[in-house]
Amino acid sequence: MNSKWLRSLPLFAMLLLAMAMAFGLFNHHTLKDDERMVGLRIAPFTLPGLGGGHFSPQLWKGRVALLNVFASWCVPCASEQPALVRLAQTGKILIYGLAWKDQPQKVAEYLRKNGNPYRSVGLDAYGQTTIPLALTGVPETFVIDKTGRVYYQYDMPITDEIADKVILPLMEKLSNGDIK
Question: What is the pTM of this model?
């Protein structure tokens, strides 16, 4: 009887190992894509600005701001542009743009064609902000509180509904200090 048990020991150990691996693979919590940066400060970076100057998180330091990452070659970005323009026209939101993996002349033409809701646009021709912003692509939008932390992240095109029901109320509450 003892030898039978010893012969089945490797099988038993393998079953235990397989169960442990399966538990690890199937029972873990991951953040949704649009929560990667929530609660974190945006790491410092400096980029050239469209039309000259520099673009960095210092532009919105101490303010509630919306950072929208877009590209002229991005079809979903063009679809969200009317909602962003409308948000900017309310005068209640500071919107900054970051042109990701794009060229200045193409960005300028895109903004002439689709409207420019941005106070300032940074040019990230080589994807330098991919890691500091944990970008997975474009469009991505970040609501940043007065302390410089990302309060909300959205990695799909902004629609009028998202703008009206989520972003605008959130920005107003953060600006008024109703949310911390």
Answer: 0.79
